[in-house]
Design brief:
about 170 residues; alpha/beta; two-stranded parallel sheet; about 15% strand; 7 strands; 5-stranded mixed sheet; globular
């Protein structure tokens, strides 16, 4: 079973508004994942008070998780099967890009500048995050790099209001 995990718990401080609600927001990403054939779609909402913002299966961060790496480590222990991460600021992600990730067999896609985007990782059931990682990049370092060619344009995220995402 493949599970899509939508990461929507950030504070969006650099962006200046909640990225989980921008450009169609989490609702668009949930529909994209549903159309791509994911059997399960879970939205990781961050704080408990954000849970009501989203539809479907929504998980707040456990109280002992104090960082994104803690949350990701926890969630990988809770979900069986293949996992596809989707950050809420994947504004350029479209059906063909998500389907390519699902069919990849696992890996970390490159964005248009050639940087690995671990928060868009496709994680096979046989993989687990690197223990005691020092960063999110390090956590996913054992996954191969996915060069998706022209679909790499869809493998980016946005952190500032001056970002051009369509």
């Amino acid at each position: 079973m493949a599970t899509a995990l939508i990461l929507a718990g950030g504070k969006s401080e650099r962006m200046g508004e909640d990225k989980a609600l921008m450009a169609g927001g989490v609702t668009r990403l949930q529909q994209l994942a549903k159309n791509a054939g994911f059997e399960r779609i879970v939205t990781l909402c961050g704080a408990e008070n954000r849970k009501a913002m989203f539809q479907g299966e929504v998980w707040p961060d456990p109280p002992l998780c104090t960082s994104l790496m803690d949350v990701l480590t926890w969630v990988f222990s809770e979900v069986d099967g293949d996992v596809q991460l989707i950050p809420c600021d994947a504004f350029m992600l479209q059906a063909e890009g998500l389907e390519a990730l699902l069919e990849s067999g696992g890996g970390v896609p490159l964005d248009p500048t050639g940087h690995r985007q671990p928060l868009l990782s496709s994680c096979p059931q046989t993989w687990s995050p690197k223990p005691n990682s020092k960063s999110v990049l390090d956590m996913f370092s054992s996954l191969p790099t996915l060069d998706l060619g022209p679909l790499g344009e869809q493998m980016q995220n946005f952190n500032r209001p001056d970002s051009n995402f369509g």
